[in-house]
Automatic annotation (TrEMBL):
InterPro entries: MBL_Glyoxalase_II, Metallo-B-lactamas, RibonucZ/Hydroxyglut_hydro
Species of the source: Echinicola pacifica
The Metallo-beta-lactamase domain, residue ranges: 13-195
Protein name: MBL fold hydrolase
Keywords on record: Hydrolase, Metal-binding, Zinc
Top-level taxonomic group: Bacteria
Length: 217
């Protein structure tokens, strides 16, 4: 059965996720670890649990989700995997990292590309890749149907949605993608977002002020 470990890193309070199963193979999604102590915390958990890192993935490539890419890439010799449409978003980070207070940011280029409909496999687990644009042009989420777990990045939050005022963002695109892609998942699916606490699809279908049934349009 899939296990999810959450770390909250950097001043953006970004959620970094480790997913692993009984084989001890673990994938690292959106490593936001920038400070030395954050990187040590990630490494210490992996060591303590006897996990074997096998994949490094980004849901999207805004700065708060990629600060630890290089660290993970170098520490565990894992190629970075992203959705191809995020390539320019990732490339842009180096140009503004210092302005956001991250002068020591080290870029990490993507070496592999994820595709919608092509599962992410590790251990005994298989995750569905779902393209959910709007917050970022190549934003994807990862869904495990067995445990009804969705790693949602910055698409759907508890009572909110991802911001759409950044380059490549589009409000209506995100609303449509959430309703057509995420709301097609079972109501009891747990969504682990890029920031804040987890939620469930069924709850957001009803109560989310942006995309729920009572949302003002």
């Amino acid at each position: 059965m899939l296990k999810v470990k959450t770390f909250t890193f950097n001043p953006f309070q970004e959620n970094t996720y480790l997913l692993y199963d009984e084989t001890k193979e673990v994938i690292i999604i959106d490593p936001g670890c920038y400070e030395k102590r954050e990187r040590e915390a990630l490494h210490a958990f992996i060591s303590a649990e006897g996990l074997k890192p096998v994949r490094l993935l980004n849901t999207h490539c805004h700065i708060d989700h990629v600060l630890g890419n290089y660290f993970v890439n170098q520490s565990y010799k894992l190629p970075l995997e992203i959705f191809a449409k995020e390539e320019p978003v990732l490339a842009a980070v180096a140009s503004y990292a210092s302005n956001y207070g991250f002068p020591a940011y080290t870029p990490c280029k993507a070496e592999k590309y994820l595709e919608e409909g092509v599962p992410v496999t590790f251990g005994n687990s298989s995750l569905e890749v779902i393209w959910v644009p709007g917050h970022a042009p190549g934003h994807i989420v990862f869904y495990d149907k067995d445990s009804k777990t969705c790693i949602g990045g910055d698409t759907l939050f508890q009572g909110s949605i991802g911001r759409t005022d950044l380059p490549g963002g589009d409000h209506q695109t995100l609303l449509t993608a959430i309703k057509e892609k995420l709301f097609a998942l079972p109501d009891d699916t747990t969504v682990y977002p890029g920031h804040g606490p987890s939620t469930q699809i069924g709850i957001e279908k009803i109560h989310n002020p942006f995309v729920g049934k009572n949302a003002s349009h």
